[in-house]
Amino acid sequence: MIMAGLYVAATNAFKLFQGRALSVEQPSEKKHSEKPSVQTGKKQKAEIVQTFETGEKIGDLVIPKIKARLPIYHGTDEDELQKGVGHFAGSVLPGEDDNSVLSGHRDTIFRRLGEVGKGDRLIVEAEYGTFTYKVKKVRIVDADDRTVIVPKPRATLTVSTCYPFDFIGSAPERYVLVAELIKTQKKRNL
């Protein structure tokens, strides 16, 4: 059973990273610019043409339920996590179709994340737009569970932190919020 789980996780991670590698190796017809552009529509996929350097601020994660506004930085190394929420570089940007993954420390910025659950809103305010998500699922998974980073068929925001919240030391599990995009508000003059 464990081997089957590892196989599925490894296969999905390979597909995710293979897809990223292919998109880098094959030149796109679209130009990447300093100014982001957001394309939306019923039949079009949401695409954001924006790049960030590791450590660069992407925007803010607003959690109305706990009255929190937390800065989001590109990358999930300790440097980024000390400053705020980290955006997993192997995932899409918030607002794009697929799975955007955010992580943070339970004993600093996500101290009250356990109060957030199904039906609550998560809002990402970025330079390129504002994206409102609704939490559809709360999961508690093992610390080494990689299913939180797998691709998704629609715009999804996955937010994770260590669990249990009151655990002393390196926590054995992760508290995961899985939210779907319900509203997109792109910035004007893009």
TrEMBL record:
The active site is at H105 (proton donor/acceptor), C162 (acyl-thioester intermediate). It comes from the Bacteria. Keywords: Hydrolase. GO terms for molecular function: hydrolase activity. InterPro entries: Sortase, Sortase_D, Sortase_D_1, Sortase_dom-sf. This is Sortase. The lineage of its organism: Bacteria, Bacillati, Bacillota, Bacilli, Bacillales.
